[in-house]
Design brief:
Shape: elongated
Number of strands: 7
Radius of gyration: 22 Å
Strand content: 15-25%
Largest sheet: 5 strands, mixed
Oligomer: single chain
């Protein structure tokens, strides 16, 4: 089975690489020091410090493997030229309430609603992909069908 491609902006890719480097160069050393101190305490069979450190080491190594796989399978997305919303686009939309906001369409790995970064796989993101400024899109939400108007596709 082929690994799933991870769609990332350059910024998202850089964040993953930075996190991986931190985990390998800082967290691994911290956990190794905890293990060394716990081993120095003696009897490992009843040493909760040792057990906790080994458990944390296992989780850390799993996270490192996951990050390495994401980085290895990453595809850097670049905003497409043209007049339609695509991965990497910043889109200013009008909500049904009359409020306006700007979102960046990113791959699911980078999605962060608090930072106005929405996944292309989310209901709103999927509805916006391929649409032009001035279009109205319908999004099926738990509250019903909502309509959003694309006010502008912001090119930087």
């Amino acid at each position: 089975m082929a690994d799933k491609k991870v769609m990332l902006t350059q910024e998202g890719y850089n964040k993953l690489v930075d996190k991986l480097n931190y985990l390998k160069s800082v967290r691994r050393i911290e956990i190794a020091e905890r293990l060394k101190a716990a081993i120095a305490l003696g009897d490992l069979s009843e040493n909760s410090e040792y057990v906790d450190a080994k458990t944390e080491q296992g989780f850390l190594e799993g996270e490192i493997m996951d990050l390495e796989a994401q980085i290895h399978n990453s595809v850097i997305i670049h905003e497409e030229e043209g007049d339609v919303v695509s991965l990497g686009s910043k889109v200013k939309i009008l909500f049904p309430t009359g409020a306006e906001d700007t979102y960046m369409i990113v791959g699911s790995t980078e999605a962060d609603p608090d930072e106005n970064r929405i996944s292309d796989e989310s209901p709103i993101g999927a509805a916006l992909i391929g649409q032009k400024a001035g279009s109205t899109v319908q999004v099926h939400a738990p509250a019903g069908v909502l309509q959003y108007k694309i006010l502008e596709i912001i090119r930087e």
